[in-house]
Amino acid sequence: MSTSLANINMPAKTHKRGFGIRFKTMAIASVLTFNAVAVGGLLVYHGAKLGLLATQRTLLSREAQSAEKMFARNLDTLRRDTLLIATLPAITEFTSTECTAAIDVDLRRCYNRATQVLVALMRARTTYHQIGIIGNDGREVMRVHSDGEYPAAVPDTALHDLRATPSFRAGTMLAEDQTWLSDGWNEQKAATPGPTRRTLIRAVTPLYAGDGTRFGLAFVDMDLAPLGQSMDNETGQAIRPYVSSRDGTILLNPGDQESLASMGQRFPELVLPELSASKASTILTPDHHGALQVLANADVALEPAKPERFLHITLATPEAVIAAAIQPSWLEILGTFVAAGLLTLPIVFLATGKVVRPLLRMNTAVRAYQHGQQLDTLPVENTDEIGELARAFSGLVQNLASSEARHRAIIETMQDAHIVADSQRRIVGFNPAAERIFGYMASEVLGTSVSALLPTRSQAKHVKDYLRYQTGEDTDMLGQVREVRARRKSGEIFPVELMLDTFTVDGEQLFGAVIRDISARKKAEERLLHLAAAVESAQECMEILTPTGEIIYINPTYERTHNCTLAAVKGKRPETLREFDASDGQIDAMEAAARGGLKWHGVLTSRDNEGTVFVEDVSVSPIRNSDGKLSAFVVVKRDISAKLEMEQQLLRGQKLEAVGQLAA
């Protein structure tokens, strides 16, 4: 039901309430004005100054702690990712191939696989600038970087010799599973839009081949600029973050015009200690001269065992905030209050009529909205701030309704189950996809425990995990996609992918779960595994060819009978491996069928490099993609040379037997 505010009639009590509010407003304004004229100037000046500084103290202290935790968390992630790189199968395979001096094909394949893994890691970690591998001789073996639009591998010609760098020297002293973080440094960026320099920290760890031989080092360069941007976004313009190295060099915002030096020169009454000398954990407290500091400082250790190596974080109040707290004199403030007092009475008298009446109408309309009436528009009688308020409120109501409708449509139409539970693990939300997947109607499960959707043997573990999360022992359960098992209404146990998250509504903590039924995918994977096993264990020779006839796969039986490997024959045509007899027309028939994308079956005679003759029963079948386009050929070959030889021997024996019978 929609109601316009203009159609809502205010009762008599509302008119009386508005009349009383008008005079109460005038009386209160008069008292406050004359009190402010008498004593407000000086008190408000000092109070505003101290209040602003106290607010900045609380804000800076909280933000400094938050910044310290954010940097420490990112540095810990950098260490763990660097160690992870050293254990990735693709990296270990590459280092093993490099160490054993494998043929170029294997080395290039391993190199491509390793760079793909590193590129994927850089896409997942947007703060990483480059990842690379250094050999024992100090030269880069591979490196991927993010200078372009997407992460990419650096050409071999652009790799560097890092023997003289501190990171290489420090890395050679590390034992297995150890990492080392460098001091931060600034470097000029290429001619690209945006900042002209980047701030980097490098992590290195030893890298070993599969046989335990030390191959070199893996390194990751993290750019601090995104972290600084994150701090800027969180703190806003009220706080300016700086990050410096232990020698006092400013790494983030080094060219900022609001530098600490210029602030100290403009406001000499403030004590601004140098970055390299200050390690205070508190801010805005009097020093030994009685002046106030306006900096918040925090140190983030680069090596927990060596506290002397650290990054120094400084949060500074911008110049404009300090000026607002210090520059105005109490006489200026007092004069302002006097002028305001002289203007207050007539303004209040004239304005209250226009202010109170629209507000009362809006109040009545909002109460009606709270009782279920949908407001299409709010009447805009004024062109001043009250009118702007009415328009803004009307837009807010419409935006809320539109947003609610969009979110509800997304939840209702999504293909994955979306389940919401309260802090007592009771189900409070169950979308149609959840009804389809689990077989329950929403009315059947709302208010019941989520344990009803779990297998019996998993319910105890679920309760245990929930209690561990409530006590803070396990926070990794949120935001991670996990594969678990669930139970339908019919009792069927099936595999699902589950991602949990938590949010708060009206002060109540709720848990949201997005659940995807992966039963079909699991069955498809199982069929693929069976098919792959059948191909690998087949006694017939099998090969897969491109539409143009190049080999892209051969099975183990083919390798054994033809005395070759997939790496050796991949990309070659079968006729380059054996000489086929085309005199019987079978080759022409097979090629004609292939050109037409048709199946073919026949017998082919071939000769290998040693002169051995093979007679094979051959079947060729085309493979087409979902668009019907020819994508490959599957060739199945069975050697029938021995069978034909036995048939010939049998035939000769029969002939001899017939001759003997005739002679007898």
- How is the quaternary structure best described? single chain
Q: Any idea what the CATH architecture of the largest domain is?
A: 2-Layer Sandwich
> In the residues, how many domains can be counted?
5
C-alpha termini separation: 116 Å
Q: How many beta strands in the DSSP annotation?
A: 24
Q: What is the beta-strand fraction?
A: 15-25%
CATH fold annotation of the largest domain: Beta-Lactamase
3D shape:
elongated
Please write the CATH class name of the largest domain: Alpha Beta
Q: Percent helix among the residues?
A: 40-55%
- Computed over alpha carbons, the radius of gyration is 39 Å
What's the story with the biggest beta sheet? Answer: 7 strands, antiparallel
Global mean pLDDT: 75
Structural class: alpha+beta
How would you characterize this protein structure?
With 664 residues, this protein is an alpha+beta fold. It folds into five domains: 2-73 and 329-389, no CATH class; 88-227, PAS domain (Beta-Lactamase, 2-Layer Sandwich), CATH 3.30.450.20; 239-325, no CATH class; 414-522, PAS domain (Beta-Lactamase, 2-Layer Sandwich), CATH 3.30.450.20; 538-647, Beta-Lactamase. It is 45% helix and 24% strand. It is built from 17 helices and 24 strands. A hairpin with a 2-residue loop joins β17 (493-505) and β18. Mean pLDDT is 75; it is low at 1-19, 256-264 and 269-293.
Quick take:
The protein is of the alpha+beta class and 664 residues long. It is built from 17 helices and 24 strands.
Question: Could you name the key traits of this structure?
Answer:
disordered N terminus; alpha+beta; 5 domains; Beta-Lactamase; 7-stranded antiparallel β-sheet; 17 helices; 6-stranded antiparallel β-sheet
